[in-house]
Amino acid sequence: MCSNLSGEAHLTDDNLISRARQGDQAAWEALVREHQQPVFRLAYLLLGAADEAEDVAQETFVRAFRALDRFDVERLARPWLLSIATNLCHNRRRSIGRYLAALRRASEEPVSYNSLGEGTEHQWEAETVRQAVRRLNPAEREIVYMRYFLELSEAEMAGALQVPPGTVKSRLHRAMARLRSVVDRDFPALREERQT
N or C terminus of the chain with fewer C-beta within 10 Å? Predict the structure, then answer.
């Protein structure tokens, strides 16, 4: 069964999932298009490599498709998909092969030299913030990435992390306090930049 979704009003995730369960490939493809960007971005933030993030994103949708019949349509699809992606990233990070691949990529990447000019200050600030976030532990990085890089709501984060919303609030509060202390201790120029 395949239908043409163009021309119809924007369908909700639960409508798309219901149709996909019945074999409607266009509905499944629409659901993937709707969520592939945030799934890829989260995987990229957690793994730091586009090729690995792409693999995780693809595997996320494969696993989601296989579990479609078990998905509770009362839940939101995005947190469910991000939860699958997060678990796959955790598994991948634990894999020794990932570390060997990262070492190989690092040795093959060419060194780039940024010329001074417009945008250099913004690039420096963005890279410095990324370095500061990388100093957090994995759970802290995850929650900061979800909130500030992916701009997820607390409800979406709770669904993705499979924890109550109150837990999201407390984890985010602790992660931000720790990030402030990392910036104060290790990146004082960033703090001074923000104060000017």
Answer: C
Q: Which domains does the chain have, with CATH numbers?
A: 9-107 (1.10.1740.10), 120-196 (1.10.10.10)
What is the model's pTM? 0.66
Secondary-structure breakdown of the chain: helix, strand, coil percentages, each rounded to the nearest 5: 75, 0, 25
Q: At what angle do helices 154-161 and 165-186 cross, to 10 degrees?
A: 100
Task: For the chain of 196 residues, list the mean pLDDT of each consecutive stretch of 10.
Answer: 49 89 94 96 91 94 94 90 94 61 50 49 76 90 88 90 93 91 85 55
Distance separating alpha carbons of residues 65 and 63, to the nearest angstrom: 5
Q: How far apart are the C-alpha atoms of 176 and 170, rounded to whole Å?
A: 10
Question: How many Cβ atoms are within 10 Å of 45's Cβ, its own excluded?
Answer: 19
